Amino acid sequence: MTRAAKYGDPADVETNLQGSEGQINYILGDAGHSFVVGFGVDPPQPPHHRSSSCPVPPASCTDGWAQQQPGPNPHTLYGALVGGPSEDDSYVDDRSDYVHNEGACNYNAAYTGALVAIIENI
Fold first, then answer.
1. Could you report the average pLDDT of every consecutive run of 10 residues in the chain (122 residues)?
2. Which of 9, 10, 14 is nearest to 121 (CA)?
3. Catalytic residues per the record (predicted)?
């Protein structure tokens, strides 16, 4: 939608921009749950991310420590977009479910693109 909002048919620019805004609003919590760590309503607490789930030094992060501990990660991974909901729009904030709870580069690339579309059209 980013390219379409900027370079698409001028008649469709507003529709494409609204699509980008709708995606960002959903990601940030319009549906009652944010998918961005450290931001919005009920954000993800234990994202599947090695560094943010390791204990505070001098404790060691060995032997799968991060996967075995309950509760939020010791270090907040501010701004990371996690994988998000399943096809049926359900979401469980579970560190061991890397598909829905990992803050991967490919998830965050599309998120950044949608933000760019909005910023360039402000």
1. 64 82 92 94 92 82 72 91 93 92 88 84 74
2. 14
3. 93, 102
